[in-house]
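User: Modeling request: complex.
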Amino acid sequence: MRGSSGTKLTHQPDRAVCMTNCPTLIVTVGLPARGKTYISKKLTRYLNWIGVPTREFNVGQYRRDFVKIYKSFEFFRPDNEEGLKIRRQCASAALNDVRQYLTEEGGQVAVFDATNTTRERRETIIQFAEQNGFKVFFVESVCEDPDVIQENIVQVKLSSPDYTNCNTEEAVEDFLKRIKCYENSYETLDEVLDRDLSYIKIMDVGQRYMVNRVLDHIQSRIVYYLMNIHITPRSIYLCRHGESELNVTGRIGGDSGLTPRGKAFGKKLSQFLETQGISDLKVWTSQMKRTIQTAEALNVPYEQWKVLNEIDAGVCEEMMYEEIQDHYPLEFALRDQDKYRYRYPKGESYEDLVQRLEPVIMELERQENVLVVCHQAVMRCLLAYFLDKTAEELPYLKCPLHTVLKLTPVAYGCKVESISLNVESVNTHRERPENVAVSRMSKEALLTVPAHQ
Amino acid sequence: MSKKLTQNPLEKTWGPWMKSRLSQRRGSSVPQFTNSPTMIVMVGLPARGKTYISKKLTRYLNWIGVTTKVFNVGQYRRDATRSYNSFEFFRPDNEEAMKIRKSCAIAALKDVCDYFTRELGQVVVFDATNTTLERREVILGFAEENGYKVFFVESICDDLEIIAQNIKQVKLSSPDYKDCDKEEAVADFLKRIECYKMTYIPLDDNKDRNLSYIKIFNVGSRYLVNRVQDHIQSRIVYYLMNIHVTPRSIYLSRHGESELNLSGRIGGDSGLSPRGAKFASALGTYMRGQCISDLKVWTSHMKRTIQTAEALGVPYEQWKALNEIDAGVCEDMTYEEIQEHYPEEFALRDQDKYRYRYPKGESYEDLVQRLEPVIMELERQENVLVICHQAVMRCLLAYFLNKTAHELPYLKCPLHTVLKLTPVAYGCKVESVFLNVEAVNTHRDKPVNVDVDREPAEALETVPDHI
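Assistant: Request completed. Predicted assembly structure:
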């Protein structure tokens, strides 16, 4: 959760298990184009989403900032003294920033993204970690499949700043020579020599894993996550249930059925999915009537997840915002002050939702094509994971009714297509009002409430 | 055309079907991810922890709602041979014995088939050495014929101390050695292991690269995982990577008696009664007396568990997942009030207490799903004291003591009583320690009449006394 205080005294996290006592340094290992940066960014995104402040440090980026203009693979030749000096300096600079992040800026996990292909370099990092009281966990990616490597180069190297002025063939040729520079000195993590280190070795994009000496909870979670992700192309479709009876009256929560317009959305959704021509689409809903009614219109098998249920508004269930302001003005103001952490009395917070949804995210990572029919707050949480949104942004993400978001992983991130299915509905999005003070007037509190019956 | 949705009155789940379908539905909180039945096949020399892993894994899977059963081929052998003479039975050149052993394996496989088709089991753990290529081929062939998925779990250990410890813990007490003295038994067993070593071929990185398996080295310091096929295999791998055999104890206790407990009300978020506060203090004394290094203390987010932990004067962690079962519309009510306002709900609950979900609340089944991360972390940890609530404690206890969904909601977890659980051999030793501070009884047994049309008096027969 970026933006939250790093010290545990000021805020009692709901995530009760103290993830790490000492900070953790995750160190990637592997030749170029083995997916290290892909893994680093993805892992960082996941850890931040579940509330572990994490940052990645890409040494290649430090090199680009220092050297300004990339000429050719010659820079990486093992006999290029000048190049080696610069690269060593960049690694040190990055480690220095790591130290600052973990000791002064409240970070809990730092991902040190570089090739780290020699035992000597790894030893330097281990000593650095020991000096500073950090735990070290290595993530090595080993792959010899030329097709996979080629695909990597096409997807993320060609568009790299290093190759802005090259044509495809030149770039690929240079990059392959670059990989060669590393190959001779590459010392893979060894079962015997490195038996006292904590690491996971990922082989052939996840077909096989070697896991050694997992020390604590966070490392165990990291291993589980890494073992569940894949790179098979697919799309994830997120949408809300069709417009519900309570939606049109401006009431939150509850378990009402669809309005006629909501049902029309169900039909349109079915038609839309057909045009997408997806093989083997999984459909998931919550256990609330409105998502199930929506899925029923699709005429395909679907699975119900209780954890996809809408946020529990506790004592405010089925109230309109006007009524909440009337009966619980203090609560209403507190919610506007910190919508992510605010928990409804006898209800939940967005923070609780994220914890509840973690198994959904894990299973989404395992699956291929999935349509998730859920609810506003739930959809915001899932979207924040895929689009790497902060805890501050998450509760205000726009997830309107009758709109499907199609997420397709591409390069290091996620492409989003927003498809409105052209069925009218109420707006249920309430922006943060200007005045969030407890002493504000009712009018100021209700300024941003969307229109309803 | 939209089918009308109806809500199942017991589990409160919506669907376009009536009650009859629900008997097939397993686990209403989380989708079922196993389509084909799965065979988990153990591999390894004797005394490598195969049966330990088999039993533990089975216990875990059943608890999370995946119907699982262990088939131990050694047991088939004991049933077939009447009495064990010596390690000579296991010599690879003992043709007569080889015949018997093979037919035992086949018999076990036949029972596996019955379990999947007739009893609708989802997972089977095939517990045997399975140390030869030939035997594994037989199993793979059998699985393919029947459309079962296969996942191998191989345990490799060359640490002589661990092996000696295993022999001591579980082999000496085996029926095979009941009339032997310790030294004889150990000597014989070691010779037995030698018999298997001669023909042992471990799973091979190269030759077996198309199989799905996990290799566990030296009780978990290293793992090799190959071709995880689906969700259930992924969960199994995660579980196996989190368990350990370091001796430790887990202490389960409820919060001290609360104000709402005294008035016979369920749920809510009240504070401790004077007696409850006394218990908290007694708990502190008791725990100090246990002299545990590095004890972790966990509570829920509810006032009564936190107040209890505060009295211990040590750091503690709060888990929202440990909150008491949400009784929805029945929160803060007495059983008498529930009978008055929701007599049908009250009866449905007595009919199937595990699956029954309170309106706008939870079921025990939901609780188990919610508590799974707690169990996973308890497996990772060493000495832990969990201060929780009645329904929550029942769920956790059911996991450790391998209780069925049927028994779970009626497990006795009285106030002011600490349960000390210590793993031993293949199971868990329980010590129940009452800390000598009186408290109300909050345990309501299943009444005789659970019909919806019963009299209030019949419904309230088993309600414990309160103010």
